[in-house]
Design goal:
The protein is of the alpha/beta class. The chain has three domains: 115 residues, no CATH class; 132 residues, 5'-nuclease (Rossmann fold, 3-Layer(aba) Sandwich), CATH 3.40.50.1010; 78 residues, Nucleic acid-binding proteins (OB fold (Dihydrolipoamide Acetyltransferase, E2P)), CATH 2.40.50.140. It contains twelve helices and ten strands. The chain has a five-stranded parallel beta sheet with strand order 3-2-1-4-5. A five-stranded mixed β-barrel has the order 6-7-8-10-9. The longest helix is centred in the N-terminal third of the chain and has 25 residues.
Length: 349
């Protein structure tokens, strides 16, 4: 729990108890019930603190939306209550109808405003982080997405239609990883910080550092889910387990690995494609190339064409830890004389 909030709650409780004691002290009739007044004031202050704790995930934007919706409901009920519909009739019955109208319309206005907080942000833009981008949804970025680095390319391509939110505890986590004694962890942390700097250098990208009030005792996954839920944002990650935790808490998530799988080159048995052969395979006559998504293509008979582009035909596709492995053969020569440039053998000096 944040120490500042704890101090404020303790101060509020002490002031309420003191006020109860002073009120009982200032009224002679209550002199004998002074401690009863203190107990009542303590119970009321504790109830207020309990309500505050129950509203932990409720954001200021949500409160503003409810207030605005209730105001619209009150305005509509006031207009109807002063209309000719309520000019005649039993005064007591009309009074009850006005109260019911006020409660119903205020409730409907609050619920509609809370459901459509994005539209509410257009009316009052400062309930979002950046007033100039009130129509952009938000995505909370975790450390794994920053360490992965592919988010830079996605943002540079202008396909990222979200305002990115980087919680301060994510940056602190990257710093801890970058200061690790383990060489690999240190490199991962530094890569994450470099990715963050690249994102902040993009003038067209809306990025915000969010100082979240989250307990330090909670794990990183719980903090990320809480921030995404409180901001009504999606969660951008490459961590499958974190995505499942977010799904359990009804928080929408975006996984860069899922995006990469959707964008990978499609291939089927019998399909022909051009592949750049870059190295030798395990067998003597094999050449190895890679598709744009990183899938390995093993070409039988491609050893002599390493260093050039070869037209191949897919024979088999096997799943692997990295995604998939494609086995192919060279397409039979369809030319009578010299082969085309893409089939020229590499000449070794």
């Amino acid at each position: 729990m944040n120490k500042t909030i704890l101090i404020i709650r303790a101060t509020f409780f002490a002031v309420c108890v003191l006020c109860g004691y002073l009120i009982a002290y200032s009224i002679p009739e209550w002199d004998q019930s002074r401690w009863v007044a203190v107990g009542i004031s303590a119970a009321l202050s504790a109830l207020v603190i309990l309500v505050d704790m129950l509203l932990k995930g409720f954001s200021l934007r949500g409160l503003s939306a409810i207030t605005f919706g209730m105001f619209l409901g009150w305005l509509a009920s006031a207009i109807l209550a002063n209309s000719p519909l309520f000019d005649q009739g039993d005064p007591e019955l009309l009074y009850l109808f006005r109260i019911a109208l006020f409660l119903i319309l205020s409730y409907i206005g609050a619920v509609l405003a809370l459901r459509g907080k994005d539209e509410f942000s257009i009316i009052i833009p400062y309930v979002r982080f950046a007033p100039q981008h009130v129509d952009a949804p938000l995505a909370v970025v975790d450390a794994s997405a920053l360490i992965d680095g592919r988010i830079v390319g996605v943002c540079e391509s202008r396909f990222m239609g979200f305002g990115l939110v980087i919680p301060t505890f994510v940056i602190e986590e990257l710093h801890r990883i970058a200061d690790s004694r383990d060489v690999q962890r240190r490199e991962r942390g530094r890569k994450g910080l470099e990715t963050l700097n690249k994102l902040r250098a993009m003038p067209f990208l809306s990025i915000h550092i969010h100082d979240s009030d989250v307990s330090r005792q909670e794990n990183l996954e719980a903090k990320l889910v809480f921030v995404a839920n409180s901001l009504n944002a999606k969660l951008l990650t490459t961590d499958y387990n974190l995505a499942q935790v977010a799904k359990f808490h009804n928080v929408e998530w975006l996984n860069l690995n899922t995006l990469a799988r959707c964008l990978r080159t499609e291939c089927a048995v019998g399909q022909r494609m051009e592949v750049d052969l870059v190295k030798e395979g395990r067998e003597a006559d094999q050449g190895v190339g890679y598709l744009s998504d990183g899938s390995m293509v093993v070409v039988t008979g491609g050893h002599d064409y390493i260093g050039s582009t070869a037209l191949v035909e897919v024979q088999n596709i096997l799943p692997s830890a990295g995604g998939r492995m494609v086995f192919a053969t060279l397409v039979p020569d369809s030319f009578d004389e010299d082969p085309p440039a893409s089939y020229q053998k590499r000449v070794k000096p």
